[in-house]
Amino acid sequence: MSLPLLLLLLYVYTAPSSAADCDPADRAALLRVKAQLGDPVRLSAWQPSTNCCAWDPAVICDAAGRVTALALYSLPDVSARVPPALGDLAALEILQVVSVPGMSGPVPASFANLTRLRDLDINGTSISGPVPGSLLAGATKLSTLAIANSKLAGPIPASLAALPNLRYLDLSGNLLTGAIPPGLLHGSFRFLLLSSNQLTGEIPSGYGDDDVDTINLSRNQLTGDPSPFLFGITKPSAKIDLSWNALEFDMTGVRFPHHLRFLDLSHNRIRGRVAKSLMDVRLEHLDVSYNELCGEIPAGRFMSAHGAECYAHNRCLCGTPLPPCSTSM
Ligand SMILES: *[C@@H]1O[C@H](CO)[C@@H](O)[C@H](O)[C@H]1NC(C)=O
Ligand SMILES: *[C@@H]1O[C@H](CO)[C@@H](O)[C@H](O)[C@H]1NC(C)=O
Ligand SMILES: *[C@@H]1O[C@H](CO)[C@@H](O)[C@H](O)[C@H]1NC(C)=O
């Protein structure tokens, strides 16, 4: 999640903070967090005997003085493991850790105690190891799970598919391997962001009937034919990015959903012709470059929006916006 969203969240949650004096157990836990981070300069406002609900950055409390949100961001001088004391903030609903490049190690087992957690957003750290199973067991309220641009390794646990409230899953920019678990795509995700990992295997087919905003699986090593999966999306789905994989299928007869706004299939091994169904899709962005497509590009309706560059480096495409097909074709 971006910094503006983070600040917005903080703004939304700031209101009750100043009123309450902070819970002593939560203050003690935060001071342990600070110590476990090696007393970074930026947390110098975190002092005993002051109201932790007013600490900046960035502690948010509820009316009872329980810490419900914590944002740790831009701590370049930290070089430490993920503080286990974070797991002692029992009322925590939102935890954001952004741009703390020296925070490393696995997500500690104590996170299993964060049973109220709705939003875990970690971006730009050195957190490593597998996607934390302990967390998944306790966090049935989790609606946002984002551990991006870190060093998570190993497979994506199938148990993620069982989290009932998950709407936003971002594990992009890690070192994840193995297949996308079947069932993961059956949930009601609005955002499924798994780009820039080392995922292999086929994209599971049979997407559910839920609205999907963005699916970004680009820059992996995914193989096979994702068109059953593309067919299956029956409700609005704005963006699909499957670029930079090893997908192999014949595009000719694929019927793309007409509500798509963004489609990037570039840098794969897609063959056949450019699908005629794209004529009916009002795409703001199309890219099928660097594939093995051949034949005349369909003309008409929404096709005129797409320039030559989105068809570049294919086997033998021709027709507007590329040079005309030779009559012998
Ligand atoms: C994560 O951080 C990077 C920079 O470190 C930024 O470019 C990116 O937009 C951030 N992503 C999210 C999802 O916050
Ligand atoms: C969870 O909290 C309980 C009670 O504070 C504690 O005894 C236990 O060690 C914690 N679990 C983990 C995994 O840290
Ligand atoms: C998908 O992820 C890649 C790499 O993280 C990024 O460059 C690209 O812009 C993303 N695509 C969309 C549609 O957001």
Description:
The protein has 329 residues and is α/β, with parallel strands linked by helices. It has a single domain (68-318), classed as Ribonuclease Inhibitor (Leucine-rich repeat, LRR (right-handed beta-alpha superhelix)). Helix content is 11%, strand content 25%. The protein contains four helices and 21 strands. The strands form three sheets. Strands 1-2-4-6-8-10-12-14-16-18-19 form an eleven-stranded mixed β-sheet, covered by helices on one side. Strands 3-5-7-9-11-13-15-17 form an eight-stranded parallel β-sheet, with no helix packed on it. Strands 20-21 form a two-stranded parallel sheet. Strand 1 (59-61) and strand 2 (67-73) form a beta hairpin. The radius of gyration is 23 Å and the shape is elongated. Mean pLDDT is 87; it is low at 1-5. The structure holds 2-acetamido-2-deoxy-beta-D-glucopyranose (3 copies). Residues 87, 109-110, 112-113 line the site of one 2-acetamido-2-deoxy-beta-D-glucopyranose. It comes from Dichanthelium oligosanthes. InterPro entries: Leu-rich_rpt, LRR_dom_sf, LRR_N_plant-typ, PGIP.
